Sequence to fold (283 residues):
Amino acid sequence: MTSPHIDSSALGSLAQTSPPDGRGREVVFDVTDLNVSYGGKLALKDVSLEIRKNFVTAFIGPSGCGKSTFIRCFNRMNDLIPGAKVDGTILYHGRDLYASGVDPVEVRRRIGMVFQKPNPFPKSIYDNIAFGPRVLGMKKGLDDRVERSLRAAALWDEVKDRLEDNALGLSGGQQQRLCIARALAVEPDVILMDEPASALDPISTSRIEDLIHELKSEYTIVIVTHNMQQAARVADMTAFFSVELREDLGGRHGILVEHDKTAKIFTNPSDRRTEDYVTGRFG
Fold:
């Protein structure tokens, strides 16, 4: 099976280089029977999967299937939404993220997030990167930390001579890499990316994808994307979500259909619903 969304050359390269499913790697997130609701209305039902260290895991699926809801569970961003309720278990390195006594602020330091639209602070480039470390008391060697973060985000050479300029003056692609650098500055373990390139032009998108490849040697990365070409290019593992209609459960909600090696998801999926989606027959 070859999808019209994924060119055959990309699939050939993907199939040759895709790593094994990572069973020998450390499990970073172990999700069991996760349900998420908003105001009592079910949004995501019965999700169970594992995310392993130094892999890029992509979440794909049609709009409304719960991809963004799910990724926000990993750093407890749903806590900030009135009426949101998360049931089930998410273990992070074996510890329940939602247990009493777990500090959501510390969770968000360890599990950084980059959003769909670049959101730099209306401050200097330097102060954008230094903001998190300052809040957390990580003030020693701040200049070096800012430089390391900008280098890691492949932005240093472009901004090193204008660190005091307002970050809002950067291009869209530069702003998104700045937001990645800002996340890296507080030394996270995981980087969550919710459609990080959807608002960018193709050249900027390519730079973000190259950056993802570079960063996964140091970080575990989870990415939500509507772009299946992008999932095929950057992800080691892919999870396909879909929408289920159950009137007895209040209408539409998202479900996890399949989670496997990216090459398998796009060339030989186990579930017909996945095949229909990646071939363009659905969604």
Observations:
- The mean pLDDT is 90.
- The longest strand covers residues 27-38.
